[in-house]
Amino acid sequence: QVQLVESGGGLVQAGGSLRLSCAASGRTSSSVAMGWFRQAPGKEREFVAGISRSGGIIRYADSVKGRFTISRDNVKNTVYLQMNMLEPEDTAVYYCAADNKILPGANTTPDRMGYWGQGTQVTVSS
Fold first, then answer.
1. How many helices (H) and strands (E) does the chain have?
2. So what's the pLDDT on residue 87?
3. Distance between terminal CA atoms of the chain?
4. Phi and psi of 23, rounded to 5°?
5. Residue 21: closest CA among 67, 84, 83, 66
6. 121: how many CB neighbours lie within 10 A of its CB?
7. What is the pLDDT of residues 15-54, one digit of tens each?
8. 62 has pLDDT over 90
9. What is the DSSP letter of 54?
10. Is 46 exposed, middle or buried (0-12, 13-18, 19+ CB in 10 A)?
11. Which of 35, 86, 107, 116 is deepest in the core (most CB within 10 A)?
12. Quick one: pLDDT at residue 27?
């Protein structure tokens, strides 16, 4: 049982930055792989970034490589997504996700993830 709560979304101009946080709680919250997905209006939910339990394995969608950085603090049971050089195409609801077995990557469909947060809106204006 894992509960995830996202925060940090907002409105930013193109080229700006935001830092998203995902706080995890529950009995197994410290032993799950975690990641971020996003869903733009009218689009399917898509993978953004993933990180292993220890932080030793990190994966990014091609669209965000070089701009976004995922990290985790296992003492705080929190995963972060630092988003730099934001583009209007990054506008979406960003969801934190976790799973006991799956480390999300470019080919991971959302149905494979066992736990989800409520999402936080990121809007990038041109």
1. 0, 11
2. 98
3. 40
4. -95, 125
5. 83
6. 12
7. 999 999 999 998 877 778 999 999 999 999 999 999 999 8
8. yes
9. T
10. middle
11. 35
12. 81
